[in-house]
Structures are given as C-alpha cells and as structure tokens.
C-alpha cells in the first residue's frame, strides 16, 4: 500500500475513498472498489476492515487494505472524503462526521426496509442505527438507486431527498460483463464437480426465514434424492446458497457432510462470491430474495418461483409478488420438481418489464456515473436536525410523599382497619404483604405466558379477589383507596418538571414513557396536579400498550409512531439504571439517568420501628432532604437533631396553650435553637402564644438565690462544687476571691498551685456547708448580686400574665433558684412552671416540672449541640443604656453546623407539619423522638454522627475543661486506658472516638478489649478507688498537714505522665524536676563519664520509685 503520508499530501479529501462491506469481500462495495483501484488512479481507494484476515486477503489480491485500528486506518478515517458501504450500518467510526457516506445498498426488491421495516427480528437493530446515526444518514449519505420505481421506493423507505440520490446500476451485477472478470476462486464449477462440460448451472438462493432460521432447508427440500435425480435427468448442477443469517441450517450442514452422494448438488460456501459466476447461471430458483433482481440484471433468463411458505412470508411484501417477479410459480416440492423438468420450455413475457422497472438507470457508464454524482453531492443540506426528548414519569416527574409504593399500601391498610366492609382479619395486619405478593404473582404469570408483556391494575386486584374470596364492593374499595392515596402523595420533582416544561415551551418534541400498572386516566390526573402543560404530552404507558421499557418494546413503539425518524438524537430522562439506562442505550438512545432519593440505614430503621403510613411520610421527607442537601451536617440537623428537639418543642407549645400560658421563656443557652423551632412552629400553625429568649444560667442564678440561708443542694454532689479539681475552680465555685479565701480560710492550707482530689472535694463540701464564716459571706454576696438579677427579671417577665420556662434536661435545682428569685422580685410566691424533655426531680410545691418523656435514655448528645453557639454561658448581668443585659463571653463553635441548625431545624418544622399524617401527630412525634435517641445510643459510629458532632467543644460540668465531645484516641490516651483510667475521662463516646482514630489505634484497642489482662499495666483485679459517700467520716486535716495530704494523693495519671516522660527523654525528666535532689541525681548519672554505668541504673530505680 502507498505511504499514507504521501496519500494524504497528494490526494484531495474528495479523492480519498474508503470501502467497507459487512464482513466478507463481496457485493457492490467490492466491485466499485476494484473498478476505482484498476481504472481511476486519480482516486486513492482503500478497503478498511475490522477483520485482519480479510485485510490480508485483499492485500494478497494486490489491492490497498488496512485495519480500522491500525495507524494507517486511523489516519485514513480522518483524511477520507468518501466512505463506501452497502448498508445503513450499525456502527460508523466517529471520525466520519464530516465524510460523505456512499450507500450502494445490498439489494432492490419488494420488502419494507430500514425506517419502514417492522420485522420483529431486525426491528431493534434497525431502530438503533437510525436513532444513533440519523443525522449522518440525513446529511452525509448519498444513496444508489437503480430506476425511478426504486428511487420512489427508497425515498419512502429511508426518508431520502432528491439531493441524496445517486442513479445507476449495481456494480456487482454488471462488472463481470463490462470489465476483466474478477476471479478469486476457480469458476469452473462444473469440472470441479466431475460433471459433463455441457451441464448447466442452476442456483437456489433462498432468503432469511424469521420463523424457522435454523431448519428451513428441510421444509424446502422434502427429498434430496428426488431432487438429485431430477437435476441429473435435466443435465443440471444446482448450487444451494443460503442467506448468511441461516447458513447454520441443521439440514444444510448435514448435507454438506454427504456431498459425495450428490454430485450435481453443490452446497455453497459463502466465503466465495457467488456474483463472480452470475454470468454462468442458466436457471435460478428464487423465493422472496432480492437476489432475483440481481440475476435479472446480470442476464439470467430462466426462473422458477419456489414459494412453498408464501402464506408465512407474504406479510413482508410491500408490493404484489406475482406481478413483480417472473418464472414458473411453485408452492410445493412436487411442483418444484415438475418445474425443473419443464424449465427450458417455459417462457415468461414479464421479464423485460421487470428489468425496465427495476434497472432502467443501469448502463455501461454506471461506474463513472456513481463516482461523478458522489463528487457532486454536498454534505449538510438538511442542516441541524431537532432532538427528540422523552421523560420517565414516576421518580422523574412525579414523586411520592411516602417515597416508595409500599407506603401507599400502608395507607390502604389503615383505611381497611377503619372500614366496616368486613375485610378478612389478616388484611388488618398483613395487607401490605398481600398487595405486594399479588403483584408478584401476576408478574410471575406474565413471564410464563407467551405474548403478554405487562400486567394491569385490575390484574393485581383480580388475583387478590380470587385468593381471598372478596366481593366486588371490597375490591372496588381497595382499588379506589389506592388510587386516592396515590393522588394524595403526588409531589413534583421540580428540577425535572421545569426541564420538561422548558423543552415544550421551546417547541421541542417531548413524550412521556412509563412502565406502570396504574391506568392511564389515573396517571394523567397525577400529571395534571404536577404540570397541566406536561399532561398534554403523548403518554406511552406499559399497561396500555402491553409492553415495557424494560423489554425495549415500549421505546420501539415510540420510534414507530414517529416514523420516519427525523431527529438528530433521542435523549431520555429517567431514574432506573436498567429500563431507563441500559435498555435505552442499547437502542442508541442517550439516557440521562438522575439519582433519586433512596432510603438509608437510618431511615430504614425508622420505618422498621414504627411500621405505619406516617413513618413512610416522615422517611420520604428525610430521604428527599438528604438527596438535595450539600453536606451531611445539614442532614444531621434535619434528620437527627430534629428528632431530639422538634417533637418536644411542639408538644411544649401545644401543652402551654392548653394550660392557658401566654408566654414561653426559652432559657439560654440551651433555649437558643429551641426558641427558633418554637417560632417556626407558632408561625406555621398561626398560634396565639408569645416566645421570649431569657438569659440566665446556674452560674448567674444560684448564688443570688441564696436569700436567707444557703440551700443544702448548693453543696450536694450536683451543686455548685461539681467538677472542682483545683484551687482556681474551688474559689470560682464558692464565688470568692483568692485574697478573701486566704483571709477567711487559711486552715485549709490550699493555695493557687493546689490540686484537689475527689475525696478531698467531698471533705471540702462538708467543711464549707458547716462554715458560719462562709455562710455569712455568701448570704451577703448573694444580696449584692441579687439586685441586678431582680431588675433583669422585672425587665423581662410580666407577672400579670401566665408564663412558663422551657429547659431541656436537668436535675431541676436551677429552676428552684429561679423560682426563688422571681418570688423575691415580685414579692409574692408563685408557681414557676418549667418544661423539660426529662427532669430528675419531680414537681415540689411551686416548682412545677412538666416532663415530655419517661424514657431514661441518655440525652447527652443534645448538650454538645446546645453548646455549639456563638455565645457561652451567662456569667452575670450588667447595666447598659438603661437596660439590663447579660454578661456573655464569645465561644468557640462550629459555624457551619450552627448555620445548618438554624436553617434546617426550621425547614423541618415547616415540612414535617405540612405532611398529611393519618393520626394524631403527637404519636409520630414521640416515635420519631425516641427513635432518634435510640439510633444515637446504638450507632455512635454512624459517620453522620461522627462527622457532625464528635469534634464539638463541650464541657460536661460548669467548671469543667472545654474539650471535644469525642476526640480521637491517641497512643497516650490508650496507654492511660490500659492503666485503668475510665473511658469517660477522655471521651463521651468511645465508638465515635475510635471512628476518628487511626487503624492501628483501633486494632490495638480491640486487642485490649479481647485480652485486657495481658495488655494492661495494672493487675486485672486492681480495684478502682471508691469515693466516700458518708461525708461525716471525712475530716479536713490540720492546716500544717494539708500539703502533705495532697502530696499523698498523687493520681495514676500523673504516674503515667512521669513514666512516659522518663521513657522518652530521661535527661529532661531529671533536669525539669522541681526537686533539687532529683536534678542533682540526674546531673551526676548523665555525666559523660558516668553515664554508661549509672544512666540505666538510675532510670530503673526511678521507675520503681514512681510505681
């Protein structure tokens, strides 16, 4: 083959022609290729194939050939001006977008083809290529026709225009008679068969049979022996050549093996081109194949029409068979035998008329005419074609509030329970399964029934009726209830609806396609609710047409209804990866698969816990939000935090209204998000109740609330001294300055560097609760601090209206303090009503505690969320511009989560309380709230929880250190855990912490849990220190001995810290010590001279001393 670079540089694009035929080197393509190769040196002709054997064979004949995937092939595809084939091919290289396609086609005839074809076995493939390549067929393809009759025929069949028509004969029919014959195999068929030279050649070349493609020949040749004898008697040699699609016919293959028995019958090998010997054929036995017309063009005179199965095949005929063919008509094998005997005496005057009708454009200049007309053809005369659009309906344009059909069935089951129709008892508890099983039964039957492809709505209920012996009234109720539930659940999928509506407004062609059992009228009503505009579009419904997208037949119905296909491409929007995706793509449709909300593990567990229609409505809400949210923190707020807070707040408001309460005060800081929820709920429901944010805290109220005496609660385990472990925290909790403490209580021996153990804290509580000096000090200080607190209360609270406070989770002592302050402010006793999700203390006297739940599940996760605010705890009040304002320090917080809480909790309120729940909303509220906490309890390693709250800064006690809620476990903290340090000292959730930890830490921790004895530095039977509970037995030491006592209480954590430091950097351990003797020992032992001898000794000794 010529150098490709030379070809590209020396031939114009229009003079570089590539040729390709289906598989073998045959047909019109072959003969035009040979003609140009031999007689048109100005055109570079190259045969291109995906079969390397074919390429090598053509090269062996002396012609140019290359493989599609070769370097030369790639270059030529980009350079070629003309691509020649004889089909509307199913695959075109993408490089040919700007290349002329010369379609020589593979046969004239009587059948409907291409865009007009409706033969089932080919229809999918035909539809696919026209859907895929129609723009190329319309703008790039010129088409060879052989007569005015065939020109009209092909224009109709392929929707061709005048400018696409190339007029001429078929190269394969006339080349051998006009030019030096092509010989690629031995043409002396008679001699090879060992027959006399005067033996005539006959051909039987039946076409493809749809109904019997693998055993057709046995029906055609009833008796091969009689046929053989008849041929011999008439001095004939018969070639039996089968269509490539039926060449694996069982009988044909069997006869091929017995070839020696039938000398005058040749079972043709299709690798040899039968057209090379057309001029040698004397008799042709034909059926419905277009090869008949090629034989007429090649000059064959004698024909027998053998159409024993005409009744089965006549449906493929577009024109009258008898008047458009010639030869003796035979409808049985016996008639065929007789016709062979008489073929030389039979004459048919119709032959010349047929040749004129089909071949009038054929002449000796055909080859040049084809080339010249192709060069004159211009690409793109039809311009840019429109796009065809289709949309799935369910989960594409229409969604369900309950998300999935199962929710609809639950709604029907609830209606069954409430009805008096006398349904079977099992329907009250198991209708959902009965309904789904009935549909599955119908689909199973469908699979096993020939000719049926889709079930109907009525089929499902007929199955239920027959199994459970229901009457017509009951079935009508079930069907009507389900339809009504579908109507109530309709919601638009806004993005897709807007897309479809915009296409309609732009005058694009749009249809709707749905695999759905519901009747068309029902779906039309649902569409009307979503979009009246889209409801006017053609709706292709599987239950109406009896075929589905899943089988591709519904797509093909759409294609057929829009024939002739005049679109550039078909874009289909849907959600199902198979029916809307794979199956559409297999037809050349470009699927646009969008994701749809699907239920995750959290939502599935919610459904499984509640198991009613309302749970599906709620789950649908959560799933859609998650689908549309941009990050998981939004979902955490909407789906998890809402369960912690929203049901409780809504209940507070409803209960308050029932009690005649006019104003609800939401106490800071926990009340921040609770008030936002309340305001959204009040606004949505248009309720007559006021809400107000009330600044306060235990720190701001407890001391001022000590009016005449100090409450016992002040010194309890849950009082003001909670979390005290050093001197600074102690004086802060006692509300006393350092100087005054040292002046009043020198006997404690405590100073700024003092650490306080749990046992010492118990003793200190006892000490100060009995101290007259401290009592007198605190009462006086409370009196002074109380003034501004009282002013703030008077400023904020209207005593003449009925009010209550909203807290969340507490013991209840802070409420007691506030009640005392309010009594003092307004100089009269009054009920102080507090709402709690759950409080520890019950109502006592005027301290009214109204609880939402009896569930004693831990509410600890809510505390970390409450703390995620820009402001910290209120530490007091101050006067500012004649107004009392809280003293609040700014706090560190997760701004992204704070924003999400503010937005999505309110969104949840508006959307949740707009759902059409079928029962009292308080039931689903309580179910949801309990579930949210249970999920936290059981799934603390859920990534949504871990990523949203584990990092939040949180202090468990009022004086506690600020730390992450669940920090990652480190090697240091793991070492302390092994030493017996409680998990709570490091994290509020070990599962969350492990989820944030490295794989090696996780593995080590799991190994520790499996075998704590082997891995723990402490003996397994080591007992934890038990704090004294009887404070009367704990005595404060004399002042002179207090430091000695503190030193004796060295904690385990300090031991571990010292040991770790000693291990990591021994020299620094000694040099950093605050004991002079230790520093001196280190200096001596690590002297360069003594270090080798004393270094290790003193390290070992120090470890023993620490232990």
UniProtKB/TrEMBL annotation:
GO CC term, one of those recorded: plasma membrane
Principal subcellular localization: membrane
Pfam families recorded: Glyphos_transf (PF04464)
Keywords, comma-separated and alphabetical: Cell membrane, Membrane, Teichoic acid biosynthesis, Transferase
UniProt similarity note: Belongs to the CDP-glycerol glycerophosphotransferase family.
Topology relative to the membrane: Peripheral membrane protein
PANTHER family: TEICHOIC ACID GLYCEROL-PHOSPHATE PRIMASE (PTHR37316), TEICHOIC ACID GLYCEROL-PHOSPHATE TRANSFERASE (PTHR37316:SF3)
Organism of origin: Escherichia coli
GO biological process: teichoic acid biosynthetic process
Source lineage: Bacteria, Pseudomonadati, Pseudomonadota, Gammaproteobacteria, Enterobacterales
Protein name per Swiss-Prot or TrEMBL: CDP-glycerol glycerophosphotransferase family protein
One Gene Ontology MF term: CDP-glycerol glycerophosphotransferase activity
Gene3D superfamilies, per the entry: 1.10.150.400, 3.40.50.11820, 3.40.50.12580, HAD superfamily/HAD-like
Cell compartment(s), UniProt: Cell membrane
